Amino acid sequence: MCGIIAYKGKDDATNIVIDGLKKLEYRGYDSWGIATLDKDLNLHKEVGRIGEFNTDKLKLGKSFVALGHTRWATHGGVTISNAHPQLDCKKEIIVVHNGIIENYQEIKQELIKKGHKFSSETDTEVIAHFIEENINLGIRSAVVKLAKTIEGRNAIVFFYKPTKQIFALKKGAPLVLGVSKQGYFVASDIPAFIEHTRNVIFLDDDEGVEINKGATIFNTKTGKDIDKKIEEVNWNFEQAKKGKYESFTIKEIMQQSETIRLAAVQDEDKIKELSSIIKEAYGSFLIGCGTASYAALLGTYYFSKIAKKHLNFVVASEFLDHQHFLTDKSLVIAVSQSGETADILEAVETAKKHNAKIACVVNVMGSSLMRKSDYPFLMRAGPEISVISTKAFTSQIAVLLLLAYVSANRLNEGKRLLEETSEKIKGMLKPEFLKNIEELAEKLKNKQHIYVIGKGSNYPIALETALKIKEMSYIHAEGFASGELKHGVIALIEKGTPCIAIVSNDEHKNDVLSGAIEIKSRGGSIIGISPENNPAFDYWINVPDCGYASPIVNTIPAQLLAHNLAKLLKRDLDKPRNLAKSVTVK
Description:
Layout: E1 3-9, H1 13-23, E2 31-37, E3 41-47, E4 65-71, E5 86-87, E6 93-99, H2 104-113, H3 125-133, H4 139-149, E7 154-160, E8 165-171, E9 176-179, E10 183-187, E11 199-202, E12 207-211, E13 215-219, E14 225-226, E15 231-232, H5 248-254, H6 256-263, H7 268-280, E16 285-288, H8 291-305, E17 312-315, E18 331-336, H9 342-353, E19 357-362, H10 368-372, E20 375-378, H11 391-407, H12 411-428, H13 431-444, E21 449-454, H14 459-473, E22 476-481, E23 498-502, H15 509-520, E24 525-530, E25 539-542, H16 550-568
Parallel strand pairs: 16-17, 16-18, 18-19, 19-20, 21-22, 21-23, 23-24, 24-25
Antiparallel strand pairs: 1-4, 1-10, 2-3, 2-4, 5-6, 6-7, 7-8, 8-12, 9-10, 9-11, 11-15, 12-13, 13-14
Helix pairs in contact: 2-3, 3-4, 6-11, 6-12, 7-11, 8-11, 8-14, 11-12, 13-16, 14-16
């Protein structure tokens, strides 16, 4: 959830780390800190956002070794003393850390007995004192002992002041090494250093890095060196910038014509191989968290309708209670933007214990989920910087739709549908369409509750629409299957209550319209997202008819509405309160 960036090299490490921290703001945090090393150790920590702090006031000096961190409080309150970096007693081990050390209390008590003095409430500080206590073994051996001792999902980076070495360890939390001619970067995510290099080494669990004059990868269980190849990522610096847009959110919404087209570009042999596995699998699941869970749920509709194949859907955090009939004939398809979500990774690890096969739909090349999967598929949406997922969600839908078509031996038909949908999105996102949604946001900005109904493949879109409104505007919104209205939901409707009805030209059209009319008869106000206007609508958002791909185009007005509501209510357009881009702790 929080962000790490460290650098050692020929360039100004101070500016590189400060800039990297700003690029990691989207990950969610409540405090930040930076440490640099020239002749002396320089440390600065703050509560709040680095983007709101005048970093020109920092008197850290020029350095060639630095590390920084944005912290999301878990152990210990939001205070300067609990912010990272954390130090040992001698102030020689300077540590930043993502994750949770599950057995930190036992380790801490042992260290206290040996005379160590703690200055924070964090589990992170244990790392610094543990290394200090075992430094007599040699720094690499102390690191290996640490890796064998701590429990939980953790990414750890520290520098050792006497030698100016940087060490990094990964287990279950994201960490990537950037390699350039000028130096080495270690970060939670590639955008932190993409301006400087696109050459990376993806670290696997139980791997570490020692950076001195060069960078050495080693196994944290054995201490032995490992050879790993450098890979080039296809993201670029411009993709990670807002450019002409007022927020990353609106930029990423407006990119969806292109990202849907790119999502359809998959290796045909690989996708056909997975389709044969899907056909043969017994006891298969689609899993995801948050927005990705709604894409996974929609995937079950696609496989049922198009491929005549039943797949189970489970929210990833609930998967442990659904593992009991998994076998080596089972398949789990995990859907995730980052590929680092803790609940997703735990579900995948559980499935692998039963020898189930793993496929994934993921956006981040080299992510933990991608490397744990037997059949990984990139959605090719490019870096999604906003905490709010928009283009990644519709790309997930596109890949799952394509997989369903392949499983029905209709690959070309599926690709053609996505190409046509891409063109229709481009035609839809015109100034008059955007203006229509701005006017709707103005009407809704003072409402306390907004309800959303859909049926069939638009039911997951109703859930996603409500989530987007909640995430961005903080207005209470709820999504329902339209057929459930009569089973209690309609009690919530009062005079003037706004309800968004998502109506496609499909077999469920009349059912959803009937639900909308029922709400209207009780005083509700109906906003229709549909290819056709209807007398039931008090306000109409015109979207193209895209057949099975209609959920993609039906989602985009909801994203725009949420963005406009957030703008009118003066919310943070890219970093809503209390949210993080990638939830890497449980």
